[in-house]
Each structure stands twice: as structure tokens, then as C-alpha cells.
Design goal:
CATH architecture of the domain at 37-119: 2-Layer Sandwich
Largest sheet: 3 strands, antiparallel
Structural class: alpha+beta
Strand order of the largest sheet: 1-2-3
Radius of gyration: 18 Å
Helix content: 25-40%
Order of helices and strands: EEEHEEHH
CATH topology of the domain at 37-119: GMP Synthetase, Chain A, domain 3
Shape: elongated
Number of strands: 5
């Protein structure tokens, strides 16, 4: 998948791919206007929403209602590196959600493609080209 990244002004950096534009900005404390999430916030959101896609798919395949299901994501930083050290995802279900499916919800969330890429990160090749 090819994405075109551009700089529309201020601290904004946007990604364009297919029919979509994903806007990012920095908070005012970082020199931006705070008009969109930061790239790192989008990265964090991609983990929870990816897990959510798999939970949603699991429920849909079994005809289970998704009303009242939420995923609470907490990120623990490694203070020695300043990087994310642990990501906790808690799938919250309503009291009437069948207990027999709770472990399966966890297994479905663990299939998240974003999680798998973090467990086996890609290599990066960064170059410049005059156009």
C-alpha cells in the first residue's frame, strides 16, 4: 500500500491513501493547533481499534450483540527508554454476555494484525529522492 504524506501547514502532517486522508497534528504544547490526533496517538488507537475489529467479527459470526462491549486500553511506559513497555487491553462485557465466550473474545483480540506486526516488527529503509 502506498501512502503520500504531506505537510498542509503548521505542525500538520497528513497521510493520503486510496480515498482517505488521515490528518495528524501536534498539541499546542508541541507547536501545533491540536486539530487532529498526534501520529503517536493514532498509532496507539490503531492497536485498540484493531483488537476491536476482531472482537466485533467474533460477535457477528456468532450472532452475539455488541451493545455494551468496550475495550479499555492502557499504555504503560518503560521509564528507562521512554517507549511503550506494555499495552493492556481489557474487554469489558455486559453482565448478560455469555461466560462461555469470554476466553474466545480474548483469543480473537490477540489475532489483531497491528499487534502481530509489533511482535514481529518490519525493517525500515528511509531514503531521499529529488523530484
Amino acid at each position: 500500500m502506498e501512502m503520500m504524506i504531506d505537510f498542509p501547514g503548521g505542525a500538520r502532517v497528513d497521510a493520503h491513501f486510496g480515498p482517505y486522508t488521515v490528518m495528524t497534528d501536534q498539541p499546542p504544547s508541541g507547536g501545533g493547533q491540536g486539530e487532529a490526533p498526534s501520529p503517536f496517538a493514532l498509532f496507539l488507537a490503531s492497536m485498540g481499534t484493531c483488537a476491536g475489529i476482531y472482537v466485533l467479527g467474533f460477535c457477528r459470526q456468532r450472532g452475539l450483540p455488541t451493545e455494551g462491549i468496550r475495550i479499555l486500553q492502557n499504555v504503560q511506559r518503560d521509564f528507562s527508554t521512554g517507549l511503550v513497555g506494555q499495552v493492556d487491553l481489557e474487554i469489558q462485557v455486559p453482565p448478560d454476555f455469555p461466560e462461555k465466550y469470554r476466553d474466545s473474545l480474548i483469543r480473537s483480540a490477540e489475532l489483531c494484525t497491528v499487534k502481530k506486526h509489533l511482535e514481529h516488527p518490519p525493517t525500515f529503509d528511509i531514503t531521499t529522492r529529488v523530484v
